[in-house]
Protein: Homoserine kinase
Organism: Pseudoalteromonas nigrifaciens
Amino acid sequence: MIEVYAPASIGNFAVGFDALGAALAPIDGSLLGDVAVVSAASSDEFICSGEYAHKLPSDASENLAYQCLVHFRAHVAPNMPSVKLELKKNLPIGSGLGSSACSVVATFAALDKFAGTKLSQVELIELMADFEAVVSGGRHYDNITPCYLGGLQLTGDLIPNKSIALPVDENWYYVAAFPGFSLNTAKARSVLPKELSMHAGVEFAQRLSAFSSLLLMHRFDDALSIMQDHIAEPYRAPLITGFSEAKASLPALGAEIVSISGAGPTLFTVCKTLKAAQQCAQWLESNYINEQGFCHICKLDNDGTRQLTVL
Ligand SMILES: Nc1ncnc2c1ncn2[C@@H]1O[C@H](COP(=O)(O)OP(=O)(O)O)[C@@H](O)[C@H]1O
Ligand SMILES: N[C@@H](CCOP(=O)(O)O)C(=O)O
């Protein structure tokens, strides 16, 4: 049996629409992500368990994890023995935490290990991105690569091996607050403008390249000072009840930046101290999340996707 965990991620990371993403590790040691378990069976079978399993279509053929298994058997490992695949769906759907990417990454990584196919990093990332693209309304790697590789990743087709890991200040904390309602990624992509003006394009390129370079030079405060999203946040904020109030209130409690995680509705802050992160989390718990929501103080998950059990 092979059991693989894949962590939640923050797509876009404010400055890098579709090109920058970070994997999350709650500081209380809990696992925030999906798990795929693959074991030998007499014929292929699939089950979906976990807190959010009931939010997914009951028909297995509509579950991304099962679709990954069908694809893997047909195109990657036709001779793999029959398997039982269990997806433990621990992340809410349409949350902005890279939920669909998490299921896809955990499943392909588990199947690759079980079948011993040893796909390369690029082969796996491309395969994973194909499936993420099916549901999200656009091909993007900013959940897939951090979820798979861990850390903060600058990612895309122009980048060697699809990804470059960027350093962050080890003192930074990330507060991620899921308000408890869903926002479909395809819908949140459909409200974005189809074209950028020359000015906006130049500014985006400048901001992302400066941010990445400053991180690589370990000029973390300078990087933080330009960490803003002018590409997606202004169009998506109206879809997220409470976001504007949170963005206005949290800086006074120590948030260095407040932005949308992925397509939302999860929001995230970057804080320089644990005290500031705790103050932000407390405010978010009282003012942003409902009974179905949750809030985690996190560091980056530098391990990414990993095996929990091998039997
Ligand atoms: N294993 C899965 N995990 C997440 N979403 C899935 C899965 N299988 C199928 N889906 C479908 O894919 C869509 C994912 O929605 P999306 O808004 O892209 O989620 P997220 O932003 O959380 O990744 C939903 O319609 C959901 O029903
Ligand atoms: N770059 C994508 C990220 C979507 O992340 P998700 O967690 O909401 O699926 C976008 O902004 O659309």
Summary: The first helix runs from residue 64 to 76. The chain has a mean pLDDT of 96. The radius of gyration is 19 Å.
